[in-house]
Amino acid sequence: MTVTKNETTILKNFINGQWVESSGTETLEVPNPATGEVLARVPISTKEDVDRAVQAAKKAFETWKNTPVPKRARIMFTFHHLLNEHHEELAKLVVQENGKAYKEAHGEIQRGIECVEFAAGAPTLMMGESLSGIAEGIDSEMFRYPLGVVAGITPFNFPMMVPLWMFPLAIACGNTFVLKPSERTPILANKLAELFTQAGAPEGVLNIVHGAHDVVNALIDHEDIRAISFVGSQPVAKYVYERAAAQGKRVQALSGAKNHHIVMPDADIETAVQHVISSAFGSAGQRCMACSAVVVVGDNEQFVKLLKQKADELIIGNGMDPEVLLTPVIRQSHREKVLGYIQKGIEEGAVLIRDGRKEMDEMPEGNFLGPTIFDHVTPDMTIAKEEIFAPVLSLLRAKDLDEALEYIRKSRYGNGATIYTKDAKAVRKFREEADAGMLGINVGVPATMAFFPFSGWKDSFYGDLHVNGKDGVNFYTRKKMITSRFDF
Ligand code: NAD
């Protein structure tokens, strides 16, 4: 809901080391998804706010690019220390604004901290290459340099981890940064800026501009922005990629997903069910690596029965309660959209074996939806093809591994896929043939760590260099080749 400014805290932008009011006149509520309590209001900033932030970052770049790499890395060590010190406070903020369970929020803080650890390795990561004697008396060297001002646009579902996929590495590589956090979870980003400044980051090196699509467009179109890192839904990822690439910018745009988990007949059923439950319903299914489709190979009624039983036993509630696994979805409007998908699933002939709508009435305060499971879903059904991003799981049936792999191939998305089996031959076939970028073997959420690329395929990613790992370093640096001869 759009509201005009009133007495509730209106978040400020962070520009040139100062907290400044947005020049926009509109604000949006930031409600706690579990209680509806309005935590803050986020300003809808303007093109002028973006320009101010970019000018600050541009000025800061002149000094920052010449700051020795080990000195830049040392700020990451201090930042790392501060993040660890504030671990609990950060996790609570994530629970409040995103709604996920405290344990998951804790895990998210840890994943974010690991990105800072990785960025602290900048002196090694930024090393170039050299070869003496490429021809008689001639040597070649490659040095890495930062790009300039770069921008990050982030989604609601990982308010800590996703910004930390971006700005620590970009900044350690010598760039300066403008972050546009999700307008649905903007609060934690300001805390990150506070801690980063406390860690010794000079003014203008990290800037934050809150807002929505106007801020995104202004960042993409700004002539002084060299690269855009984006994470969000598929239509927006494609739009950002195309619009920024058309202007000659470097872009990495991480997008939506539909992750298939194959349950082979020999799988350990208890383990498979436990992983599917936690992957599909943890964070209310709002993870780009969540299991949203299970392919049951063979006639495995025992798996389906146990899955339904464990879904029935799930504790639903506020993420601050340590017993809770299933938390609310981000907004009422999102839940409305999800209800539309459930209706569509029924109309298209899928069998609703667990209806999570019944829990909605029991918990009127927050945006809750109970675990929902459809069986006998076919690959052409809407619920099998589209990302629902909620605790709604589709079970597809396949006669063998070939057919299961065919379902994955048919999907437009290719973020992740998992197989549950003890059979080495099936594992190898899955590894070689599964058409997705991050695979799990008996692992429910095969998300990669900071030192590896987060490597979605197909419509789950637009660009070529992924976030994190060496890809991230290559994305945020450009190379200069020196060829020298001194044989005169
Ligand atoms: P979203 O696309 O709604 O928003 C992402 C960002 O884009 C936000 O900052 C938002 O302000 C901006 N935005 C939204 N609409 C826009 C428009 N029309 N023009 C310009 N900018 C716009 O995504 P979300 O709902 O916040 O996040 C969930 C999505 O992100 C899911 O699809 C999920 O799969 C995806 N995601 C992907 C990954 C990955 O690694 N592939 C990781 C996390 C989330």
UniProtKB/TrEMBL annotation:
Catalysed reactions, semicolon-separated: 3-oxopropanoate + NAD(+) + CoA + H2O = hydrogencarbonate + acetyl-CoA + NADH + H(+); 2-methyl-3-oxopropanoate + NAD(+) + CoA + H2O = propanoyl-CoA + hydrogencarbonate + NADH + H(+)
EC number per UniProt: 1.2.1.27
Lineage of the organism: Bacteria, Bacillati, Bacillota, Bacilli, Bacillales
Function: Catalyzes the oxidation of malonate semialdehyde (MSA) and methylmalonate semialdehyde (MMSA) into acetyl-CoA and propanoyl-CoA, respectively. Is involved in a myo-inositol catabolic pathway. Bicarbonate, and not CO2, is the end-product of the enzymatic reaction.
Keyword NAD: yes
Assembly: Homotetramer.
Matching Pfam families: Aldedh
InterPro entries linked: Ald_DH/histidinol_DH, Ald_DH_C, Ald_DH_CS_CYS, Ald_DH_N, Aldehyde_DH_dom, MeMal-semiAld_DH, MSDH_GmP_bac
Enzyme type, top EC level: oxidoreductase
Residues covered by the Aldehyde dehydrogenase domain: 19-482
Molecular function GO terms recorded: malonate-semialdehyde dehydrogenase (acetylating) activity; methylmalonate-semialdehyde dehydrogenase (acylating, NAD) activity
GO biological process, one term: thymine catabolic process
Pathway(s) where this gene product acts: Polyol metabolism; myo-inositol degradation into acetyl-CoA; acetyl-CoA from myo-inositol: step 7/7
The protein's name: Malonate-semialdehyde dehydrogenase
UniProt source species: Parageobacillus caldoxylosilyticus NBRC 107762
Active site residues according to the UniProt entry: 288
Protein residues bound to NAD(+): 156, 180, 183-184, 387
Signal peptide from the UniProt entry: none
This protein's UniProt keywords: NAD, Oxidoreductase
